[in-house]
Specification:
The chain has helices at residues 9-15, 42-49, 64-76, 88-99, 114-126, 139-147, 168-177, 190-193, 227-240, 246-256, 259-278, 297-303, 318-325, 358-363, 380-391; strands at residues 81-85, 105-109, 130-134, 152-156, 181-185, 203-207, 221-225, 283-287, 310-315, 333-334, 344-346, 370-374. By secondary structure, it is an alpha/beta fold. It is globular, with a radius of gyration of 22 Å. Bound molecules: pyridoxal-5'-phosphate (PLP).
Length: 398
């Protein structure tokens, strides 16, 4: 390999962030469960405690396994720094609470993840933070609201569960004009398909529970960005305590080694399934940015390297057809998670947006008969054959 060659994401998923943490010649990062770290030299202890020297003091602040995981995510997002959390929601809430004060204003979209939307509608107003929720694909409205001035522009793209696409370059440009910080939840895209920091965003968030871990066996969250900003978020977390557990960090780290492989396959599978569903008579709408017919396709093509593993669709027979159809799928968990190696399906009203009222869901354009589909790494032909046989059980007609 030539010295100047940029290391690809596939290689980074396997190698990045680990070397410094290997010990005893082990080729895998050890899971360190110790809560405390002992020191013989009190001056050295003090220097580590003050952050003047590298090292660990207490598990709430830092841990070697957790740090190795953060280093790998940092490499994949090409960030200066990354800090991890116990869950994706902890990453989101801690980031918001680090920077927002009473009287501040935040501009965002209606289609954020259900829990995030709850923070905007329920918790931030209690702190007298003014939240402006815009129609997700109405870029003119977003620009108008940003122009009025705001501390944060908070975005998610593609969105959950209707896979709407926000033009990041356009919105980031507008935010910079008024000095607003841009935060992007990059969970659905993954760093394999999209890097908002490279497009000018200030902070990128992931629910590591989803694609980064990829095996639905560990919760976690991350925030990536400049050292200056991430250090502030880290300080909030070390005091408030939403720390990632070492065992979870180990599972996430191991899962991430196959991130590139998994996401490439999930990109392919989702496109094949979406293309199949689009021509099916039982299906009324398919939402997938990889489809040429999709409203957000052209923007997605500009800012994404792949269109991701998530799609959603509605049945012509509505909720009753969904109830007949979903239980007949063999190769799909009917569950609330997403981004795992297994295909997972569920209606948003029982999964991502269960915290919202039917009225709130309606306002977000989430019909009660919508099905969210997280393509796994199975063979696409098997997934399509499975959908085909399940469709045959639908008796409800439109
Ligand atoms: C799941 C999810 C979250 C929340 O993450 P948790 O790990 O469940 O707390 C946030 N944003 C998006 C887009 C998600 O899919």
């Amino acid at each position: 390999m030539s010295k100047n060659q940029e290391v690809t994401k596939a290689t980074k998923t396997v190698w990045s962030g680990e070397k410094e943490f290997l010990s005893h010649g082990a080729t895998q990062v050890p899971t360190v469960f110790s809560v405390g770290y002992g020191y013989e030299d009190l001056d050295h202890w003090l220097d580590v405690a003050l952050g003047k020297e590298k090292g660990h003091i207490y598990g709430r602040m830092s841990n070697p396994t957790v740090q190795s995981f953060e280093e790998k995510v940092k490499a994949l997002e090409d960030a200066e720094k990354c800090v991890s959390f116990s869950t994706g929601m902890a990453a989101i809430s801690n980031t918001l609470y680090t920077f927002l004060q009473p009287g501040d204003r935040i501009v965002t979209i209606k289609d954020t993840y259900g829990g995030t939307n709850k923070i905007f509608l329920e918790f931030l107003p209690k702190l007298h933070v003014d939240v402006e929720l815009c129609d997700t694909t109405d870029h003119e409205a977003l620009e108008r609201e940003v122009e009025k001035g705001c501390k944060f522009l908070y975005l998610e793209t593609p969105t959950n569960p209707t896979l709407k696409v926000v033009d990041l370059v356009r919105m980031i440009k507008k935010a910079k004009e008024v000095g607003a910080l841009v935060v992007v939840d990059n969970t659905f895209a993954t760093p394999i398909n999209q890097n908002p920091l490279q497009l000018g965003a200030d902070l990128v968030i992931h629910s590591a529970t989803k694609y980064l871990g990829g095996h639905a066996d560990a919760l976690g969250g991350v925030v990536c960005g400049s050292e200056e900003l991430v250090n502030q978020v880290f300080h909030y977390r070390e005091i408030n305590g939403a720390t990632l557990q070492p065992m979870s960090a180990y599972l996430l780290l191991r899962g991430m080694k196959t991130l590139d492989l998994r996401v490439q396959k999930q990109n392919e599978n989702a496109l094949k399934v979406a293309t199949y569903l689009e021509q099916h008579p039982e299906v009324s709408n398919v939402y997938y940015p990889g489809l040429v017919s999709n409203e957000g396709h052209d923007i997605a093509k500009k800012q994404m390297r792949g269109f991701g593993g998530m799609l959603s669709f509605t049945l012509t027979g509505g909720v009753d057809a969904v109830k007949e159809f979903l239980p007949k799928l063999t190769y799909a968990h009917r569950a609330a998670n997403l981004g795992a190696v297994e295909t997972t399906v569920g209606p948003p009203r029982t999964t991502s947006h269960v915290e919202n009222t039917p009225e709130e869901r309606k306002a977000m354009g989430i019909s009660e008969g919508l099905i969210r589909y997280s393509a796994g790494i199975e063979d696409a032909d098997d997934l399509i054959a499975d959908l085909e046989q399940a469709f045959s059980y639908i008796t409800v007609k439109a």
